[in-house]
């Protein structure tokens, strides 16, 4: 049975404008074509968007072989290349580990101040740099950059690292699986071939064919809200700040978003009437008229890209179906407010990558892979819940929902208390994991929380940061021990690191004597803050910079936490 | 949630509430009520109490 009719794209239509120049990648005929038997590949990633490429790059970095197939030969989507734009601190930390952060920082735009208007009045503003949660990391709260740039940086990095083959213009046409493995049928310009795989990762996005073929159950909710994006470059008088309007006088009192991205391109995103015709609202003359209403008739713009969109929310009931792992938009679909689409796809990939790598290298039990579902399904559900609330605020039902929104806006203009009700998007965060089988939760424990990429000093005084420690740990668990260690502790730790995939680092103050282990100096206590650890305690940090557990003494809790973090069954019994 | 009398002056509040809406249209009354509920909710703050109050208001239907 084949399924050729399924399109693997998001189906943006009616695009206008000059567009972006996307890189194209050569089709290389796969070696399997012409050979009789299906080739074996332990890991096959389907889909080369930001999620699939992040996973591919993470595996490549850990030296784990895989192939990635993508039906296209470019990043972004042909003719519709403008997609995600806001990247969170957590994603930027992940990209730093993968070796592409410097490119992103150079091309993108850092921002931290946002202002929200209703009519001509400012109702709300925030500065993320003033918010405590962002201060410890070496990465800024957010960078805006066109998604395809990140994808292109990932492609270059994967090709440089090796281990993972990127196969462009390779289209999945059929799939089956049983207890022995998965069988994928793939079409290319040079002919068809089949591949057997142990693990298949579905990163095909919101129109996932695998989800359809496998009849994966999911919850779905469709709204009638309509939007139209205009990506524009101003040749005269560009806007100065990142603004959002809940009610814009120049857009019939509907919402408008205004963000700066790379290349001095502004994304102006207009909320449309619910019954708007997508073809009409994205016509170039109509878009120009709309821009003139906002910026004045004398302002000249170059239209880079225009596209209408609607959104829905969806969430699978389980992140794994046999040998198939769902990630990114193939697992859940959210409205774009708060940047919870692409960023959580990146986090999905980062979560699964180290677990797959540890299992493939024989350094963790296969049961560890089940924790991917525990952790990322909790994140997916939370992101769906948060974005649905935003969608409801931005497109209230007629009647009492609109009455309450008007009440909240009216009060927010005068009183600070009402400003938290104004919901133009709750910016994506590193989702905490509160119910994972791979974490050991104790009273008041920070287990399951993300650790920021904080700075410290290496033993020789040079500045280091957490990502470099994770890099050094090379996919193994990282145990940070804060403060002095007794002789007995050191002996136990030496035993543990000799038998488990575990790297132990002692963290000491400026003047403390280091003991016999690897050590770093936490001059400002930032590392301890980031791990939410007590003096004399330890923090078990996973390769995805999440805390598996923390504790006070080198004891049985630590042994149990290591076991859980490696998927050893029965440990938590 | 407090369900026993906690008023300092119930009659005065009741009179003020009615007076404030006496000359309003039905739409204005709805808007007034929404603003008042949001103001009062913030005075309470406690998420559990607010949830209990919403549930209690539904039960009276």
TrEMBL record, chain A:
Pfam families: FAD_binding_3. Coiled coil: none annotated. Residues 42-385 form the FAD-binding domain. The keyword ATP-binding does not apply. Keywords: FAD, Flavoprotein. It comes from the Bacteria. Its cofactor is FAD. GO terms for molecular function: FAD binding; oxidoreductase activity, acting on paired donors, with incorporation or reduction of molecular oxygen, NAD(P)H as one donor, and incorporation of one atom of oxygen. PANTHER family: BINDING MONOOXYGENASE, PUTATIVE (JCVI)-RELATED, TRK SYSTEM POTASSIUM UPTAKE PROTEIN. This is NAD(P)-binding protein. It comes from Hydrogenophaga crocea.
TrEMBL record, chain B:
InterPro entries: DUF2783. Pfam families: DUF2783 (PF10932). This is DUF2783 domain-containing protein. The lineage of its organism: Bacteria, Pseudomonadati, Pseudomonadota, Betaproteobacteria, Burkholderiales.
